[in-house]
Write a structure and sequence with these properties.
The structure is a single chain. By secondary structure, this protein is α/β, with parallel strands linked by helices. Helix 3 runs antiparallel to helix 21, helix 10 (222-233) packs across helix 11 and helix 23 packs across helix 24.
Length: 753
């Protein structure tokens, strides 16, 4: 086994130099860092491996690595492990990965540094056998639970999920059920693959064609199961039965069913693998197929202790436990699916919304509103530009009852009579504005001290960055050599461009990413939303306190030049990108940084969409002048159904719907979301977004002479054109800003006259 001296010898440096590099010292040249890193890779050296091999006694400590303990499966597993270990005087240290491989790798490194005797692991990366081999080389004995490592002779304890799911599906088919869905975790987990394989075998043997739409693969948490359930419930033929591989998935499924129950022609019943318990009172609507996870934990601990104490001639053990069959009779005797009838109503609201994940979320949850109020809702969606024009046209008629509006549009639409004054509604129903983020009503709902809309979709900008790259010793040293500064999340836009250039492969061949940043310069909203924070940070303004145009300033030009420079460090197509394309690039690992509204960031931690899940940090954007984004819901002043419309927007924006709405793709302005520990695990940047909101600025226009409200949308197109022509090299920043300033002046004069 290689030692630190071997590394030093091969690298041609001293023992102390290797230690300094491993400890992150900046006082070592980049050349020596590269030589030591090369030697470590060639030799396969692992820190503390030698120290462990020279130990005269065991540490009597074991790491237990689990995805979570909110699922009773894993809490019972840990109970059994801890009980068996403590009986043999071993201490159990619990580590939680949250199903993120990057977290798991850090935990393994910690276990190695602490020189633990062994580890019991329910891994979230079963294909990454290299990390397990490194643990074994370091002398750490391993037992895997629930999720086996294929093609490796490792210790393993799991359950025969294949048999219980196969038997269950066969029973259901024999009992007359034909439309059976299954919801599992990632297919790379052996426990989940067994469930899917047995499900497919059972329906095939009974001559039922397989339907991929009835198989939902999730991220193995309640939130993704909740989303999967809506996809199943919106199928043309709603499943009669939904089988899940975990009780936490079953909980997410039941939450969706309960929301939609009143409008379902057929309510599915749920059958789930779970853990053994003397009572199932907590889950009266779920038929649970129990497994004895406390026993499994005890067996895993016993195997590990045996391996630790008798390593010389130890033969790896693989144990598959049978699932209990004590609830099988409940499946055979289950009543036919309950029939439900939607409450008939002649009252149908027409709603016009932005085509976005938020409108999809609201559409998916409409069953809850119909169940509560007996009111039908039709939602039409349009693009950003189409929506603004349509509202101006439709406000002259009563075709649509509710509009979704961008918050900068509020003054224009309120002043011109497009929107209903909601003040009396809200004063009569004060609960409708309870639980909102402090200060949000002033920014999202009020104009001229009156309520015209309700806050619907919260959005502020954050800096997202590759935390793993920023913390890498090699890149820290390289950046320091180049700039004589620490590699940290940038605090200014000048620093931002320096870091972006450093992580762009064209300028730094050793960069692990193609580009330093993503950008979304699409005309007009994308360009404006990314440029304004820079303009404000450099001290630029569009208007002075009296409403005079002062856009044509050296500060604004400097900010635009800074923004133009950023496009040297982004993909060539960034000038035509909007937020969706930015997220896709970042999730694919193509860029080191991204400035984005939080409402578009949900895919970052989705392991099926993101290669960087678990590797991302977040901070206030450079310059500390983030742009406030977001949307509100208002009532058409010509609607004949204002009372029903207010019930709808109150429901769509209420705190009770906040978490389901956000899980499905929205971004709620209700404060309870940002303090919910389960949601913060999924979207860890939520608390930071509240900090960003406090310092965010809103797009706005001054009134023209005589108090006439000027269209912010027209301002956006004028400024957006200047920015777009600059970033696409059609005009110099000086020329583009000069023309924009003249157009703004003409806009104010036109509205004065």
């Amino acid at each position: 086994m290689p030692t630190i001296k071997d590394v030093a010898k091969l690298a041609g440096v001293s023992h102390g130099t290797v230690s300094n590099i491993l400890n992150g010292s900046k006082a070592v040249s980049l050349d020596k860092v590269k030589r030591v890193e090369h030697a470590i890779k060639v030799l396969g050296y692992q820190p503390d491996a030698t120290a462990r091999s020279l130990k005269k006694s065991k540490t009597m400590s074991v790491g237990v690595v689990l995805p979570n303990i909110t699922d009773a499966t894993f809490s019972q597993l840990f109970t059994g492990i801890e009980r068996a270990l403590s009986e043999k005087q071993y201490a159990a240290s619990l580590y939680i990965t949250s199903e993120i491989a990057a977290n798991e790798n850090k935990i393994f490194e910690q276990i190695r540094r602490q020189r633990m005797d062994g580890a019991i692991i329910a891994t979230c990366q079963p294909q990454n056998t290299k990390v397990f081999e490194e643990l074994l080389k370091a002398g750490i004995k391993l037992v895997f639970v629930e999720r086996n490592i294929e093609d490796k002779d490792y210790n393993f304890v799991g359950f025969n999920n294949y048999k219980i799911i196969y038997d269950t599906v066969c029973r259901l088919i024999s009992d007359g059920y034909k439309t059976i869905a299954i919801v599992t975790g990632p297919k790379e987990y052996s426990s989940e693959k067994l469930c899917i394989d047995s499900y497919l075998s059972a329906i095939e043997e009974h001559g039922i064609p397989s339907n991929n739409k009835l198989i939902e693969i999730t991220n193995f948490n309640k939130e993704s199961a909740f989303k999967a359930a809506f996809r199943l419930l919106q199928l043309g033929e709603v499943p009669e039965v939904i089988i899940t591989s975990s009780m936490q998935l079953a909980e997410g499924i039941m939450a969706a069913i309960n929301i939609c129950e009143g409008t379902l022609v057929r309510k599915p019943f749920v059958v789930s693998l779970g853990e053994d318990s003397w009572t199932n009172i907590s889950y009266p609507d779920i038929i649970k197929l129990p497994r004895q996870f406390i026993q499994a934990g005890e067996i895993a601990a016993d195997i590990l202790i045996d391996n630790i104490q008798n390593p010389a001639f130890y033969d790896a053990k693989s144990i598959m436990l049978d699932c209990l069959d004590k609830n099988a009779g409940k499946i055979c005797g289950a009543r036919p699916p309950k029939q439900h009838v939607t409450r008939n109503s002649s009252d149908t609201l027409k709603v016009l919304m932005l085509d976005s994940s938020a409108s999809y979320a609201t559409y998916s949850l409409l069953a809850d509103f119909r169940k509560a109020e007996g009111i039908n809702v039709d939602i039409d969606v349009l693009s950003y530009k189409e929506l603004y024009e349509a509202i101006k046209q439709e406000s002259l008629s009563g075709t649509y009852d509710v509009f979704e509006i961008d918050i900068p549009w509020l003054p224009e639409m309120a002043e011109r009579g497009y929107l209903t004054d909601l003040t009396r509604y809200i004063e009569a129903n004060p609960k409708t504005i309870e639980g909102l983020i402090p200060g949000i009503l002033d920014e999202y709902a009020k104009y001229d001290d009156k309520f015209y809309v309700m806050p619907y979709m919260f959005g502020t900008q954050l800096l997202f960055y590759r935390k793993d790259l920023f913390e890498d010793i090699k890149y820290q040293r390289m950046f320091y050599d180049q700039y004589r500064a620490e590699l940290n999340p940038p605090k200014t836009w000048i620093e931002f461009n320096a870091v972006a250039k450093f992580f762009t492969k064209e300028y730094n061949p050793e960069s692990p990413t193609l580009y330093g940043t993503t950008l979304g310069g699409k005309f007009s909203s994308g360009a404006v939303c990314e440029f304004l924070p820079r303009k404000w940070a450099f001290g630029g303004s569009s208007f002075d306190e009296k409403g005079n145009v002062i856009l044509d300033s050296k500060e604004t030009v400097k900010a635009l030049k800074n923004y133009c420079e950023s496009f040297n460090y982004a993909s060539p197509t960034s000038t035509e990108h909007w937020w969706g394309e930015q997220v896709e690039e970042f999730c694919q690992g193509k860029a080191a940084m991204m400035v984005l509204f939080i409402s578009h960031a949900t895919d970052i931690n989705d392991r099926y969409k993101s290669k960087v899940a678990g590797k991302v940090g977040f901070d206030i954007i450079p310059g500390q002048k983030p742009l406030l984004g977001g949307w509100s819901l208002g009532i058409n002043s010509n609607s004949s159904k204002k009372d029903s419309a207010f019930k709808f927007i109150s429901w769509a924006c209420c705190k009770e719907m906040a978490i389901p709405y956000t899980i499905l793709g929205g971004s709620t302005p209700c404060v309870n979301l940002y303090k919910n520990s389960e949601l913060v695990l999924v979207y860890p940047w939520l608390p930071k977004s509240l900090e960003s909101f406090k310092i965010s600025k809103k797009r706005s226009m001054p009134k023209a002479v005589g108090g006439v409200v000027v269209s912010e949308r027209q301002y956006e197109e004028i400024l957006g054109e200047a920015v777009y022509k600059s970033i696409t090299n059609q005009m110099s920043p000086e020329e583009a800003i000069g023309i924009a300033a003249s157009k703004l002046q003409n806009l104010l004069i036109k509205n004065t006259n």
